[in-house]
Amino acid sequence: SAKTVPPPLILDRKFVVPLLCGPGPCAYWPSVTEALAKPVITPNCDEFYNVLDDIRAGLQYVFQTKSKLVLAMSGAGHSGMEAVISNLVAPGETLLVASRGMWDQRAIIIANRLGKYNGIKTEITSVPSNTTFSMEQLESELKRTRPEAMFITFGDSSTGTIQNIERLGDICHKYGALLLVDTVVSLIGVEFLMDEWGVDAVFSATQKAFSGPAGIAPVAFSALAEEKINNRKHEPSFYIDIKLLANQWNCYGDTRTYHHTLCPPMLWALRCCLQEIVKETLPVSWARHASSTAYFHQRLQEYSIELFVPKPEERLNTVTTVMLPEGYNHLEFHNYMREKHNILVLEGRGPTLGKAIRVGIMGVNATKEVADKVADALADSIQALRK
Ligand code: GLV
């Protein structure tokens, strides 16, 4: 009848898989494709909790933390960001955001939305988006604003910069602030030492240098952060409540409490990524990303292609922001790279929108062979699209 909805025609579609060289999503480890098809596991079984234990051990390794409060959120990297901010910044408290790109802007949006209901205040300090912060600037802002927490992006995929945070934990703690760090596009590709650097809360994502699917977001919390979570008076949104999720993930070994239904293929995939990373080891992965990205930059230099970030030591070893020459349209450029070379790169976002093309030599694609292919294709595209 006119009231029913007829079945739609859902046809099989062909998809030409491009070489994934944007800022993410990255190509999977071949073993991850198989892992996604592993059996359904359910929260009543030991198999299920063994998988969670394996993931937590792997995450302690990749974050370099001995903390027990380590788990993965059911969601994209943004769920990690929401969790870190909502669980650690209480009503009426202040979050200082160190702003240089698009992701810290998201932190500001999240904190401001919470602030409408509970009075969280946001303070912002910024630098030009093709540079990074000095410790002096961050310390003087901590002194001025006296926040309960500071948010900073370690590697920033919108600008292609890497922020030095080695001493930042100590500086934050000196002023009574927790240090919250976004490692979405940097973890696995760049050295990160949570405990040694005094990071209090960190989140990442699996579709970047992990070389897995998007949709599960690793997070970890320090002892200081854990104490704050356990003693807090406020209740964050139920779905991202770390206190409850710690019980679901059996972080302390004595709870196996149902919270929400976890997605088995994502658990298998993350576990598989971690197995691959453990096999390679972090130092080897960091070195592979450093050498393939340095080689990529050298190849671009040979073609006189300019980079958005002027100082080599501030360039991120996973995602490069390549200057889009004057007069070029980024969509046309993107489409040409895809159609002619079957390479997927992405437009600039946030501060680099319309100004740069973002290229990821990252995860399983962090190799000199891929760097060569992309550098040659970029040079060809610049030549071909010259007006
Ligand atoms: C998305 O994650 C991006 O870097 O654009």
Automatic annotation (TrEMBL):
GO terms for cellular component: peroxisome. The gene is LOC113506346. The modification N6-(pyridoxal phosphate)lysine is found at K208. Substrate binds at R358. It comes from Trichoplusia ni. Belongs to the class-V pyridoxal-phosphate-dependent aminotransferase family. The keyword Transferase applies. Its EC number is 2.6.1.44. InterPro entries: Aminotrans_V_dom (IPR000192), PyrdxlP-dep_Trfase (IPR015424), PyrdxlP-dep_Trfase_major (IPR015421), PyrdxlP-dep_Trfase_small (IPR015422), SP_NH2Trfase/AEP_transaminase (IPR024169). Gene3D superfamilies: Aspartate Aminotransferase, domain 1 (3.90.1150.10), Type I PLP-dependent aspartate aminotransferase-like (Major domain) (3.40.640.10). This is Alanine--glyoxylate aminotransferase. GO terms for biological process: glycine biosynthetic process, by transamination of glyoxylate. GO terms for molecular function: alanine-glyoxylate transaminase activity; L-serine-pyruvate transaminase activity. It catalyses: glyoxylate + L-alanine = glycine + pyruvate. Residues 47-370 form the Aminotransferase class V domain. Keywords: Aminotransferase, Pyridoxal phosphate, Transferase. Its cofactor is pyridoxal 5'-phosphate. It comes from the Eukaryota.
